[in-house]
Amino acid sequence: MRALAGHPAARGLDDDCAVLEIGGETLVLTHDMMVEGIHFLAGQDPADVAWKLVATNISDLAAKGAKPIGVLLGYQLGEESGRFVEGLKEALAHYGAALLGGDTVGGSGPQALGLTAIGRATHVPVPSRCGARPGDRVWLTGAVGGAMTGLEALRSGAGESAAYRRPQARLAEGIALAPQVSAMMDVSDGLLLDAARMARASGVCLSLDTGAVPLACPESRRAEALRWGDDYELLFTMPAGIVPAAPAKCIGEVLEAPAAQILVDGKLPNSHDNLGFEHYG
């Protein structure tokens, strides 16, 4: 597919979003899917599923510092569609996005859902994954591990599960940070894996101090939390000495070498290590 994506807006498929300049406007577009049994549990409240579908797409806009305009929904009809609509209404109101259209289909088997989110850039150039430079510091807007323990709570029926059911896109933070950052992306598939993606896109090394990463789970589960994903915090880089315009924790620095790699507490990960969630892994 990368060979087909020759339009400049596609950014070589190396980024979370397409960035399309039309006249005096810069639009930011993204599309994410969710599948029952992979991204949400069978029998989970459809209102929560709708919220998560919206929030995960808005999170991509947040990583570009974009303000939401609206969404296009691809909905496979299922049981309790009314609950899905209730959750969709809540999420769209929360993020200030309009439902612009889409499609509904019938079908059997696990439910599959898709959403295209459209936003307007608040800062140009729009941040990407590929701008990190040696000497930059690496930052994270919040804690990881909350979705991991949230899913466990949801499965067991005991404990707090909101971090998994209703993640929060860091929209205000992304808009505030966009003029400052050299690179930015959201953490959806695990901090280590997404940091590795930023390092590859930028052609630099991201050296991470895992002890500095804030946790929303017990310390004993730090290694899991770094790889688990679904936390939707913003990972970004900026030149040393700059104070971020949104609350964030410095978790490392950008080095020139080893290029396109991450260092985890000073060491290269084992090539067989699982850094995060990959569908084809």
Top keywords for this entry?
281 residues, alpha+beta, 60s Ribosomal Protein L30, Chain: A, Phosphoribosyl-aminoimidazole Synthetase, Chain A, domain 2, 2 domains, 5-stranded mixed β-sheet, 26% helix, 27% strand, globular
Tell me what the structure shows.
With 281 residues, this protein is α+β, with helices and mostly antiparallel strands. The protein has two domains: 2-121, 60s Ribosomal Protein L30, Chain: A (2-Layer Sandwich), CATH 3.30.1330.10; 136-264, PurM-like C-terminal domain (Phosphoribosyl-aminoimidazole Synthetase, Chain A, domain 2, Alpha-Beta Complex). Helices cover 26% and strands 27% of the residues. It contains seven helices and eleven strands. It has helices at 46-62, 81-95, 146-156, 162-165, 171-177, 191-202, 222-228; strands spanning 18-22, 25-35, 66-76, 98-105, 112-121, 136-140, 183-186, 205-208, 234-239, 249-255, 261-264. The chain has a six-stranded mixed β-sheet, sandwiched between helices. It has a five-stranded mixed β-sheet with strand order 1-2-5-3-4, covered by helices on one side. Helix 2 links the parallel strand 3 and strand 4 (98-105). It is globular and about 50 Å long. The two termini are 19 Å apart.
